[in-house]
């Protein structure tokens, strides 16, 4: 029986008797059949001997090779005339250099129970005594509730008093003097300046400036028309200004000055 280590290389040598063909005119192979897989290894013929190098089988097959497995083997020769011969066929046993033997050892030690609960002992008691123990009511514990915590009294909300500024005093109404348009038409420049003085504009320079502006807006130097524009200019500065500020005596003065100018 031939043996083959699947982890090592091995050279198979065959002695043959040949006649007719020269050694260099034939080809030969060693074929192995491993579990329906055919493996071919080229052989060399020298001096009536055929040598074939078998590579490690574990590098050629993907499945495991068990030690003791028998595989079929065959030597094939092809002549120069294309004649095919199989002068040898046999079996090769797979035998690995690594061996393992195992023996079952029986463990007689008591095994620990994996159960969470176990029974230590069984006690025998009379049935009547157990029945009495069951009937005895267990005392009920009274649960005394804790007194409620006093609720804090809400703080009184302080009223926010709004400070309101006192209203501005309304301008005092000016008593109407009953002046008519005919009387105002007799007013002179001095009367217009007197009106500006009573209305609050007492600076002579400012009075002249206002008077000149009023002449331009009126488009005329007539004192009555100028007075209307002066009233408008001063009213934009203060709502208290109006022609009604003239009293009767003042208008009488203005009229006399107007009559003198005419004479």
CATH superfamily descriptor of the domain at 2-94: Immunoglobulins
Mean pLDDT: 75
Spell the H/E element sequence: EEEEEEEHHHHHH
N-to-C CA distance: 174 Å
Supply the CATH architecture of the domain at 2-94: Sandwich
Q: What sort of overall outline do the alpha carbons produce when their principal axes are compared?
A: elongated
The CATH topology label of the domain at 2-94 is Immunoglobulin-like
Please tally the helical runs, counting DSSP H or I stretches of 4 or more residues: 6
Can you tell me about this structure?
Among the domains are: 2-94, Immunoglobulins (Immunoglobulin-like), CATH 2.60.40; 181-255. The chain is built from six helices and seven strands; from the N terminus they run βββββββαααααα. It has helices at 127-135, 181-184, 189-198, 204-218, 223-237, 248-262; strands spanning 2-4, 10-15, 27-34, 37-46, 49-54, 70-78, 84-94. A seven-stranded mixed beta sheet has the order 1-7-6-3-4-5-2, with no helix packed on it. A hairpin with a 2-residue loop joins strand 3 and strand 4.
């Amino acid at each position: 029986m031939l043996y083959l280590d699947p982890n090592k290389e091995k050279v198979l040598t065959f002695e043959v008797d040949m006649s007719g063909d020269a050694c260099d005119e034939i080809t030969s192979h060693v074929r192995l059949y491993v579990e329906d897989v055919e493996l071919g290894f080229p052989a060399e013929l020298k001096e009536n001997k055929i040598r074939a190098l078998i590579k490690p089988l574990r590098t050629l097959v993907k499945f495991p090779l068990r030690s003791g497995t028998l595989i079929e083997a065959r030597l094939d020769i092809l002549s120069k005339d294309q004649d095919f011969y199989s002068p040898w066929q046999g079996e090769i046993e797979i035998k690995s250099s690594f061996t393992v033997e195992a023996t079952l050892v029986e463990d007689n030690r008591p095994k620990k129970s994996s159960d969470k609960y176990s029974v230590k002992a069984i006690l025998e008691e009379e049935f009547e005594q157990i029945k009495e123990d069951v009937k005895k009511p267990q005392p009920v514990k009274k649960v005394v509730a804790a007194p409620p915590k006093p609720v804090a009294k809400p703080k009184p909300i302080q009223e926010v008093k709004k400070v309101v500024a006192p209203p501005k005093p309304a301008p005092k109404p000016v008593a109407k003097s009953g002046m008519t348009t005919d009387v105002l038409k007799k007013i002179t420049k001095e009367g217009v300046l007197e009106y500006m003085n009573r209305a609050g504009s007492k600076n002579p320079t400012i009075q002249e400036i206002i008077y000149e502006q009023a002449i331009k807006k009126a488009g005329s130097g007539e004192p009555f028309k100028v007075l209307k524009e002066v009233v408008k200019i001063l009213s934009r500065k203060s709502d208290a200004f109006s022609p009604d500020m003239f009293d009767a005596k003042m208008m009488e003065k203005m009229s006399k000055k107007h009559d003198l100018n005419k004479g």
